[in-house]
Design a protein that fits this description.
Helices cover 20% and strands 26% of the residues. It is of the alpha+beta class and 264 residues long. The longest helix is centred in the N-terminal third of the chain and has 13 residues.
Length: 264
Amino acid sequence: MTLTALPESPAELRQMMRNGGLVQTTSGMAPGRVQANLAILPRDLAFDFLLFCQRNPRPCPLLEVVEAGEVEPRDFAPGADLRSDAPLYRVYEHGELTAEVTDLSEFWRDDLVSFLLGCSFSFETALIKAGMEMRHMTCDTTVPMFITNIPTSSAGAFSGPMVVSMRPIPQEQVVRAVQVTSRFPAVHGAPVHVGDPSAIGISDIYAPDFGDPVEFNDGEVPVFWACGVTPQAVAMNAKPPLMITHAPGHMFITDKQDEDLAII
């Protein structure tokens, strides 16, 4: 389904996802609304993960924590259900991806704590308004994401490399891209790297670990932002007994406005 055919209301989009009728990347959906990464863990691991987020605010900017067993993010999306209102979820057991589903009902437990984390899709509207093309949106693909050699700060059971998302930006617009995204620290903020991918451990810019490759035009350079898929790389590294996340690119759309999180 094309973006032009979709409602802009977050509540209507979430209802479509809840009914199983909308399973696609959410980049460009509900323009101007905050999108969130999702991580769900058993209560006995929740404090360690909370500490991991506090120690790694660039890849894991914490927006809201939903108490054990509850499914409604009251601050960011009152009335929503985290078990069904994202388009696609991943289930990891002992670090292995064991399921990809549109509804978590069969996996839900009363001891599960949910974390909403900032997502770079939330500053894409601002980049577009500043005159920059989001190539993955133009091509109707999922933004490319890469596991880097940038270490995160460990916390309890959680450690592993940072994941980044990448967007081609014309050389003359890189400074503007940094300025625009610096206003949104709650959704990853300014880039963590510009230019040579090998400097952060990426051997092939056309072979992302998550998402889809995109082409570069003449004069464009790769710009990398910290990414909320980092918890999935951490899950593969730390191997917790159970961790549930969104599928890369398939975010939870909240009711909050992007500008609510911006620094003036």
